[in-house]
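Morning F.,

Quick status update on the modeling queue. The single chain you submitted on Monday has been processed. Sequence for confirmation:
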Amino acid sequence: MTDATSHDPRQALLPTALTAAREAAARVMEIYGQDFDVEYKDDRSPLTEADRDAHAIITRHLAATGLPVLSEESREIPHAERAPWTRFWLVDPVDGTKEFVNRTGEFTVNIALVDGSRPVLGVVLAPVPRTVYWGVVGDGDHDGAFMADDDGSAALDELRAAARPVRARREVGADEPLRVVASRSHLNEETSRFIDQLADVHPDIARVSRGSSLKLCMIASGEARIYPRVAPTMEWDTGAAQAIVEAAGAGVYEFEPDTPAVAYLDPAARASLKPLRYNKSSLRNPYFVAC
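Structure tokens below.
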């Protein structure tokens, strides 16, 4: 795997993001193996020591780049302060805290670089399956998404050299089911209705449930073809994985209620859809479909 660090500023930032995610993941797993307390924020979402410690580790590493950091666990930053940012880090120290608390193993450490309003670099590390994904978009020859097995023991250069390219699926074979991935914790009536629309056209549909950013990573790696999220998310939930999805040749689009579900599988129809964008006045995402 070619090291383009000296030529590509985004690639130059990738080692920092990978190192931060790996160190944070090691601390998260220390806490995961112990008894831990769970607090609840005002919106009733859970918060643990793992969220706080991972946040501290990641922000310490990213501070060295001189770019601002927007993290789920940082202080609230008003849009007037964020609006002038041309590039910034977007972080979810533990994405899928519910999965962490329930010990399903389906949680991730997410770090994204946002350029303007688009995520252009992403690292998603899943500590329990010991898998790390990363992707860089918008730099021509240096575009690409990769995954690697990572138990934390390999040096960073070794990890990158052993990485495997990932690519989203363009077509589904005649003898294959249409694989649809959905949230394990947030499968609501609207999402079920969307999947039912797909099943009307693809009766051999296969439904898969996952937690955290692993759903988007399944789109990037070709393990699933479409992921509807007709439920609330925040920018830090999706930024890192969206960069990986786009680097792998797929997209994350705003959900349009009047658009038939099957249209999201049609390249011509997708051309009119709006990609998910970032650093908005509200950090809440619109509903979306990754495909």
